[in-house]
Sequence to fold (230 residues):
Amino acid sequence: GAVVSQHPSRVICKSGTSVKIECRSLDFQATTMFWYRQFPKQSLMLMATSNEGSKATYEQGVEKDKFLINHASLTLSTLTVTSAHPEDSSFYICSVLRGRYSNQPQHFGDGTRLSIL
Amino acid sequence: SQQGEEDPQALSIQEGENATMNCSYKTSINNLQWYRQNSGRGLVHLILIRSNEREKHSGRLRVTLDTSKKSSSLLITASRAADTASYFCATDAGETSGSRLTFGEGTQLTVNP
Fold:
């Protein structure tokens, strides 16, 4: 069964709207989750690392005020795209890391297709 | 910027044939992982190979790692139409990097029935 649940799977909304995407770890507690962005026929670009109980760590070039991340519990991280514009249209994917140590694969959600009109 | 480069970018083969995809990277790694992505979906983990390992098998999958050349290959044997997907390598530099993954550009594999 699914280890990670990501909702919604698709969002279509008007420019200026804020959109919240949820990522839930179903099988284990996750202190660390990751948010990625993927453009058509391209690879995944890491946007930020979401840490439970602390501020997210953003990658260079990612606007923290634009992409708000909240990791308030060990099973839920949310990504809010604030005042979304057409250029924010993309495929957003979260992943969950089991435990704190490396040499573990990440478990990915099914992604959210965001389309801003 | 993406550390990983994969080739080929696209590969089309017939069912039953083997498919080989290559990945190169630039910095030191703790492990290298291969993932599969069906169109419009999330990623599915295939194999993780640690930096001190040279080869790993899982079913029809065989992964090699050459840290001296900073390269890895994924071999899918006896391919099936259901293997059609994008395949990505991802490098993990370890805890000092926060276990963040850096993905390659991916190989789009098409297996024709």
